């Protein structure tokens, strides 16, 4: 059965605004982050998209975003969490190395890039294979979304070099155990002063 997976990045957080490294550490949504989630919700409503099931990273920022997008029950899933940056969590982003990060965070107690990519890919594969619904919502994080895109890039003609904005929506088609990215929805936040 063909399914559609809507993979959404959470809204802006205080750590995003403060340029802090935010992986497994957490911070709440800002007022702008809440408005971004409302804009994403309007996208789903305007396009008459409803969900048969919903999943979120266990991080508060992802759960709070999902609860704005829909009022239906959802499952919190640890495998959808952001990259673990070890002891560099909550430090300033200037400590990040140039991309790609590779195994930079491993000596600091964090995850290597390939292990992280595999975790996200395996988690979403497991969820979608077991889910009997046709429209599935998953709320996760910026690097998680990007690594999932990279994992399936060989099957997709859609790509984006620019960063994935908060509350962007990645629309994947899932059939025969293959994910194909069909569309990236980056909302217009001009009115929010961004």
TrEMBL record:
InterPro entries: His_Pase_superF_clade-1, His_PPase_superfam, PG/BPGM_mutase_AS, PGM_Phosphatase. Coiled coil: none annotated. This is Probable phosphoglycerate mutase. CDD domains: HP_PGM_like. Substrate binds at residues 9-16, 61. The lineage of its organism: Bacteria, Bacillati, Bacillota, Bacilli, Lactobacillales. One of its GO terms (molecular function) is phosphatase activity. GO terms for cellular component: cytoplasm. It comes from Marinilactibacillus piezotolerans.
